[in-house]
Prior knowledge:
The complex is a heterodimer.
Chain A: H1 7-12, H2 26-35, H3 41-51, H4 58-71, E1 72-75, H5 83-94, E2 108-111, H6 116-123, E3 129-134, H7 144-156, E4 161-165, H8 168-172, H9 176-190, E5 194-198, H10 207-219, E6 224-226, H11 238-255, E7 260-262, H12 270-283, E8 296-298, H13 300-314
Parallel strand pairs in A: 1-2, 1-8, 2-3, 3-4, 4-5, 5-6, 6-7
Helix pairs in contact in A: 3-11, 4-12, 4-13, 5-6, 7-9, 10-11, 11-12
Chain B: E1 27-31, E2 37-42, H1 46-65, H2 68-84, H3 86-97, H4 101-120, H5 125-129, E3 131-132, E4 139-147, E5 150-154, H6 162-173, E6 177-181, H7 188-198, E7 207-210, H8 214-223, E8 229-231, H9 239-250, E9 255-257, H10 273-276, E10 279-287
Helix pairs in contact in B: 1-8, 2-4, 3-4, 4-6, 8-9
Amino acid sequence: MAPRLGKVTVLSALDDAHLADVTTSEASLRRFLHGLPGVDEVGAEARAAGLSTRSIKTTAKQFAIDLAISMIDLTTLEGQDTPGKVRALCAKALRPDPTDRDVPRVAAVCVYPDLVGVAAEALAGSGVKVASVATGFPSGRTSLAVKEADTREAVAAGADEVDMVIDRGAFLAGHYRQVFDEIATVKQAAGAAHLKVILETGELATYDNVRRASWLAMLAGADFVKTSTGKVSPAATLPVTLVMLEAVRDFRDASGRQVGVKPAGGIRTSKDAIKYLVVVNETAGEDWLDPDWFRIGASSLLNDLLMQRQKLATGRYAGPDYFTLD
Amino acid sequence: MSERLAVKKTYKLAIGGKFPRSESGRSYQVADSAGEFLANAAWASRKDARDAVAAARKAFPGWSGATAYNRGQVLYRVAEVMEGRRAQFVDEVARGEGLARQRAEKAVDEAIDRWVWYAGWADKIAHVVGSSNSVAGPYFDFSVPEPTGVVAVLAPQRSSLLGLVSVLAPAVVSGNTVVLAASYERPLPAITLSEVLATSDVPGGVVNVLTGRVGDTAPALASHMDVNAIDLAGAAGDTEHAHELELAAAENLKRVVRAPGAEPDWTAEPGLERITAHLETKTVWHPVGI
């Protein structure tokens, strides 16, 4: 059973009727966010390290590998991305292992806004979602008007999901209301598209800030909270994801609304991915063990999962020569 | 004063320039030819084999990309360090193989000379087995040998140093990286050689040494899709086992050096067969410039 760090305090600070009141002013927002209990840093890291020693073998491993594949947001976010590369990535998303039809599809393909149209065309009707980063990714240092326009364009081009970045400068300066308003505005601009809010935990410095930023994003209407852009080191780590999973769990208890979590960046091996799944199961619970509520932002991870899958199926170790480069 | 207690060694594996214990945590006792305890050695599992292949793959671009001259210099340096460890090698060969001191010394000398001989081939082999081809067109046309990739080598079970060098050196000299499964009963010279390699400019991962039952690691290596060639010298005389390994190796068309019916006389002139066995030939057509 996961230690429910600070849950009681969160709930007492927040009896349901007051959830809306929290966001009425800068002062009430600050009072609430700073009233959140601090994260026990040593405890969180020890808990994450402890959970990552779980041994997941045979059928459980098979299940975990397929689940992890179905949770991947297959991502390419590079300056050198071309329509051809995005199309190749989409083909891989639809059929990760061309030699094995039993391999599940990935959850989504994540690209820059200008390539959303290419991805949407390649994935049309497949059920694989198109996710687009937006709002001046990766730094988020543009005006609100530009962020809004960026979002609208991505959605108009066919994005089912929008991955926005928060203004970390404003957050760290304590301008919570500004960050809140930005998220709310982008949420509105995104319309029916799912909004993932990237906290860029590598720049937030403390777990307390991660917890605050998670709550802030959820209060402002985020459908997902996401750890990182992948452009800053450290990107996703287990303890950070643990803190965010606690936040979404407590938020659902307080508000009744379920929010998803997406670690992204630095998850490269099947072993890593399975560790994350264990932490999800033990922290937020089984409800989150679903591509609708937990995603993994990655690119090279998929090949490793496929190699592990082939090893389980054939008994022989697989080699990277037999999988596509990406 | 009390009698000094002997320091009994527990050796480890050599993977990726480090000396880890077996992932399985197992080890086994190595005895000399008379059955006396010599040392404890790590008992590698197939996961160790997997890790060793990953380390070898990682080291391949650097080692194969180094100039032939540079590889040759590094391998000469290995021979120098082997020479410095001569007494230890002699002791291990004498006790492990049950040889008289003089014969053991001769075997070690031959092994070091064999290493030097192979080291010399590093920058010469391309000129012997490569060629500039005559073609009916305005092109230069070259055939150049290239290393095949990660090579699994099952070291001879009986000749623990000379036989070992005779299968290991020809694989690494041309730029391949190696996962070596050492002799089960006589692993100590292989372990000492791994220590020599670690202290003589050979990049980590170029030679990875697994000790333990060859039956545990060899099937994993033979069927591994990321291994490009396998030398079955260590399966000499065990045709059934060798046959199984050849079948497993067929899946990704590994180059296979077949197991002989009995372990050969390693003192014989080696020839170039074992070098060329782990090479592939690339032919390039190049338009003639004006």
